C-alpha cells in the first residue's frame, strides 16, 4: 500500500464514528459500508472494519491513494470520496487535522463519467413467462406476485411506490382500479389498472381479503397473509 494509514487501536476510529453519528437514515448504512470497504483496502484484511483504521492520520496523499484503488463505477469512487471527506471534517473539528490539510483533501476531484442505469425493459415474452410462473403457484404468494408484476408492467410504477400502496389507496370504478401513490419528492399521482392488471389485482384481493394495511402484504413460510407487513 502507498497510504500511510496504519492498523491501530480502536480509539483511533473516533473521527469515523463521529462522522457516522452525524448522519441519518440510509446515509449511515451506505457510508459505514464505504468506510468498511476502505478499511479492507488499506489493511489488506478482508475482514477489516472501520474500527481497524487510524482515521486520525488522514491526509491528502493517502486519501488520493485510497481513491485510486476504488474499483467500479464513478459513483462508487465518489461515495468513498464523500465518506473520506466527512471523516476528515470530523478529524478537523476534533483538532486532529489542520485546516490546510482539510482543504487539500477537499480539493481532490471526484470521478467523472457515468454508467447505464441498473435494470432494463423486459421483453413481452419475458413478462408472459413471469405471469405463467405465477399462475402455476397455487399459494397466496403466486397471486400476490402476479398482481404486483401486472400492476408494475401496466403503470410503470416504481418499486417503492408499489411497496407503499395500502388498501385504502385503491378505488374500483367500473372495470378499472384507480390507485393513489406517493412518489419521489412526496408527489402524489394516480395509477390506473384495467384489463389484465385489474383481473390480477382482483384475484389477489380475493385471497388477501379486506383487512386494512399494505396492498402487497407479507406472507410467512406457512402461507399465512400478514396485512400489517408489506
Instruction: Provide the structure class.
Output: mainly alpha
Global shape: elongated
SSE pattern, N- to C-terminal: HHHHHHHHEEEHEE
Number of H/I helices: 9
What is the first-to-last residue Cα distance?
A: 46 Å
Query: Going across the major beta sheet, what is the strand order?
Result: 1-2-3
Average pLDDT score: 84
Poorly predicted parts: 1-10
Percent helix: 40-55%
**Beta-strand share of residues:** 5-15%
Kindly state the number of beta strands.
5
For the largest beta-sheet, the strand count, sense and barrel status come to: 3 strands, antiparallel
Q: Return Rg in Å.
A: 25 Å
Summarize the structure.
By secondary structure, the chain is mainly alpha-helical.
Amino acid at each position: 500500500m502507498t497510504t500511510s494509514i496504519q492498523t491501530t487501536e480502536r480509539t483511533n476510529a473516533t473521527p469515523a464514528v463521529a462522522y457516522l453519528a452525524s448522519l441519518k437514515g440510509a446515509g449511515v448504512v451506505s457510508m459505514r459500508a464505504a468506510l468498511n470497504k476502505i478499511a479492507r483496502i488499506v489493511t489488506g484484511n478482508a475482514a477489516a472494519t472501520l474500527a481497524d483504521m487510524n482515521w486520525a492520520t488522514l491526509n491528502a496523499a493517502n486519501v488520493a491513494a485510497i481513491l485510486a484503488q476504488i474499483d467500479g463505477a464513478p459513483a462508487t469512487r465518489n461515495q468513498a470520496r464523500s465518506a473520506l471527506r466527512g471523516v476528515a471534517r470530523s478529524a478537523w473539528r476534533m483538532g486532529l487535522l489542520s485546516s490546510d490539510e482539510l482543504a487539500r483533501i477537499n480539493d481532490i476531484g471526484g470521478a467523472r463519467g457515468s454508467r447505464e442505469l441498473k435494470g432494463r425493459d423486459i421483453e413481452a415474452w419475458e413478462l408472459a413467462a413471469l405471469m405463467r410462473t405465477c399462475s402455476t403457484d397455487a399459494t397466496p404468494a403466486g397471486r400476490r406476485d402476479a398482481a404486483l408484476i401486472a400492476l408494475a408492467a401496466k403503470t410503470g410504477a416504481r418499486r417503492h411506490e408499489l411497496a407503499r400502496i395500502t388498501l385504502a389507496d385503491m378505488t374500483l370504478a367500473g372495470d378499472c382500479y384507480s390507485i393513489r401513490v406517493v412518489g419521489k419528492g412526496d408527489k402524489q399521482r394516480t395509477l390506473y389498472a384495467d384489463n389484465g392488471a385489474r383481473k390480477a389485482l382482483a384475484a389477489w384481493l380475493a385471497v388477501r381479503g379486506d383487512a386494512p394495511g399494505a396492498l402487497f402484504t407479507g406472507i410467512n413460510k406457512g402461507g399465512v397473509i400478514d396485512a400489517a407487513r408489506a
